[in-house]
Amino acid sequence: MCIKFEGNVFKSGKYWPIEVPALYIFTQGKSRRDAYSMIKEAVEIRVNRPDFEVDVVPLPENKFILRAKRNEDDKYLVALLLKQQRAKYGLSTADVARRLGITKHAYAQYEQARSLPSLTKIEEFIYAMSNKAHFVINIFEEPKAA
Fold this sequence. Notes:
alpha+beta, 19% strand
């Protein structure tokens, strides 16, 4: 699997706010390049794993893609997604597990990146956190490396 998250960057006054909405991470930089560096650092700090790195790939129209440098590190991005979304809705791991009808330990395996859930499971987890939130798969053309 190769998990990629879409983000937004835009100029506001003299700063460049930048966000990855699905990961509920927001920061800013003094330039577009600085903003990309800041979001990269913010995600890597939150994942807090040795040797974990992300790439930020600019897209047209103030969009960008954030992905793990190594596909085997996707589980850390999915774990971050689950933790950040759970925190956004003010839920504990026990709350989410109860809504899913599974044990807290079973759910924690995903948030601890010990297991990589299927896309169907990710959708179930997000819906359990908020029945107004939806998991969307997007297909896009990524620029080729030069």
